[in-house]
Amino acid sequence: MIEAFTLATAHHFGDALASQARLRYKTFVAHRGLPHNHYAGLEYDEFDTPAAVYFVWRDRTFTVRGLARLLPTSRPYMMQSYWPELVDGTPPSAPDTWEVTRVCIDRSFPAAQRLRIFPEIFAGIDEYCAMEGIKSVIGVAAPTLVKHHSSSGFRWLGQPAEVEGKIERAFLMPQGLIRMHETCAKLSIPESVLRIAPSESFAIAA
After folding, report:
1. Which phi-psi region, left, alpha or beta, contains residue 176 (left: φ > 0; alpha: ψ -120 to 50)?
2. Number of domains the chain contains
3. Residue whose C-alpha is closest to residue 4's, from 204, 201, 205
4. What ranges in 95-160 are assigned the alpha helix state H?
5. Which residue of 52, 92, 144, 157 has the fewest CB atoms within a 10 Å radius of its CB?
6. How far apart are CA 83 and CA 183, in angstroms?
7. How many CB atoms sit inside 10 A of residue 109's CB?
8. pLDDT band per the 50, 70, 90 thresholds, residue 205
9. CA–CA separation, 35 vs 28, rounded Å?
10. For position 136, which CATH number holds?
11. Which whole number is the average pLDDT over 4-22?
């Protein structure tokens, strides 16, 4: 099950908002040594706004072991603000195109249990996009990871370049292909994996 929430709905999910920030600190600051903003073991940035949607995978102790964040490109977002050179032309800006960011997994979690985390997260993102009328997501990732995720259907937005010490590339992936269909079938991941706040739905940020 993937839980999705915003700053407005995070109270329905216990300490999931803080737990995802702890995993971000562990992944980006403690492990990779990146100079990201952090405080008291929590990583954060200027895009942690009410417009952000967090997708988390939690274990039986309710600790976040995997996460991704979606940002609307109709508002300031990471690729546009920090790596516009990764895009040939002007970075996207549309209410039906969102950016996936802060994707990470807890590498200290048992390997056998980690297998489901990313496929479930992206299945949840795809489900959310279908629910909210989002036509595509964009992001920055290692080219091999994007090709592993989907062998066809995605589109490169520009040429590879170094981002935070790694060679990465900007991509666009349409809704429907965000879910890793073959992997989800092998792992028997159900069609619906998303849990949102009761009696609440998200509205696309203007």
Report:
1. left
2. 1
3. 201
4. 111-114, 117-132, 143-149
5. 144
6. 30
7. 16
8. very low
9. 8
10. 3.40.630.30
11. 97
